Amino acid sequence: MKHLKKLTILHSNDMHGDFLAEQIDEKLVGGVSLLSGYVNQVRREEPNVLYAVAGDMFRGSVIDSEYRGVSTIGIMNLLGPDVATIGNHEVDYGLAHLLFLEKCANFPIINANFHIKSNGKRLFQPFYIAHVDGMKILFIGIITEDVLAATKTDELIGSFVDIGEAAREVGNICNTYNAIDIDFTVLLTHIGFEEDKKLAAMLDPAWGVDVIIGGHSHTFLSEPAKVGDIYIVQAGTGTDQIGRFDIMVDTDRNAIDTFTWQSVPINDRTCPRDEEMERYIRHYQQATAEKYDRVITRFSQQLTHPMRNQETSLGNLIADILRDSLGIDLMLMGSGAIRSYALGPVVHYADLVECLPYDDAVYMLQVTGAQLTRMLRHILRDEAFHGEHTEFYQFSHGMRIVWSRSRQAFRELTLDGHPLHDDRLYTVAVQKYHFTNLKAFLDITPQEAEENAKVRVLTTSARDVIEEYLSVNPHLSRSVEGRLVVEP
């Protein structure tokens, strides 16, 4: 006779400070008040409920950036996850500040692989065991060095280089703690959906991993992926939805007997409000309103940025402003640094900060036409179009690229109407984050660029440049004009 117990696991990822509900089609969608209302409702209705967050709680709102994440931890404490892992944006305010924020959290923040290089000591608790109705549920937090690009310059801190090393560490933990009769094992990862599938394929079935709850790639699913006997899920991005597992756990086999999974929409028709959460957030809204609620400009129309791996109207405007203001040949504006799907037509300062939360310096390189061609080829490699979380760019005016994916070749490549000359030097600007990861993101090293000319910092704040330009140039507009055309 089977011994079955029900377990409900709720999960979020990549919330990015998405605290406030939005009015969409005559209903309120998302926001932590409704999310908290749903989580608490499930906790009332079901006997054994755990809520997990798979990284990137921070960044994306003025409430988060103004208080450097302290406000976010307070909101998350009220939301009350049982466990969370770190994502790449948890280190945006610096590693020391993240360790401070971890001490402010009333819930465990786990990660198995952030460590001090000199002695191998982990910076976070590597796992968490939840005790529910006589069951022991093991959560292990995983991130890899490729995701943690912001820490590349920190020589004291290390992390897993790749998922192979991550898999070995999962094995170490599972082998150690399976002896205490773990009933269910969850990997809480922040490495992206495609990497989750690769990781699952590397895990020994004897380690007993049942589920991977992931983040980073902002993947929306209609059903879980399955690799071997491991189910892989993710819940998109923000607070517009939450993932939900309802699992019957066979406690004799320490495995799933049956389950259902769904992505549950969060809106005011299906979720109760959490009034205490609303009062808590209102305090921060009032405190930030005076500083952030001022109008910078009005566009001729709303500009959008729906996808990072294509040309967008908002991306065009931002790249153009930086090219024209800084006097360079080409601005490579990181698509992922533009965090809003739409901006305008009226632009408040709060909108600009939420759109461009990473107030980076801008570095200017001088590269040859041959080097620039290589950089562009790297940006357009096939991984960028396969749903993998690669860096992509918005190109300033004058750039014209027609790229054939089937031929892996440029059908057209011109700048200001002229083909690139292999030996000519071009001034190209990138944000500090991208300069720090120059080889990985653009296939050129800082040393190669320095051989051409000294690398210069053009501004310590890209957002200041953009704000100033917007404030003195009203009624701006841009369209998708074919700067980048990707053919099959």
The CATH class assignment of the largest domain is: Alpha Beta
Give the number of domains. 2
Q: Describe the main β-sheet briefly.
A: 6 strands, mixed
Number of helices: 14
| Computed structural class | alpha/beta
Q: Can you tell me about this structure?
A:
This protein has 488 residues and is an alpha/beta fold. The protein has 2 domains: 4-285, Purple Acid Phosphatase, chain A, domain 2, CATH 3.60.21.10; 294-487, Alpha-Beta Complex (5'-nucleotidase,  domain 2), CATH 3.90.780.10. 29% of the residues lie in helices and 28% in strands. The strands form 8 sheets. It has a 6-stranded mixed sheet, covered by helices on one side. It has a 6-stranded mixed sheet with strand order 8-9-11-12-14-13, covered by helices on one side. Strands 23-19-27-22-28 form a 5-stranded mixed sheet. A hairpin with a 2-residue loop joins strand 13 and strand 14 (230-233). Helix 3 runs antiparallel to helix 7 and helix 5 (163-177) packs across helix 6. It is globular, with a radius of gyration of 23 Å. The model has no long low-confidence stretch (mean pLDDT 90).
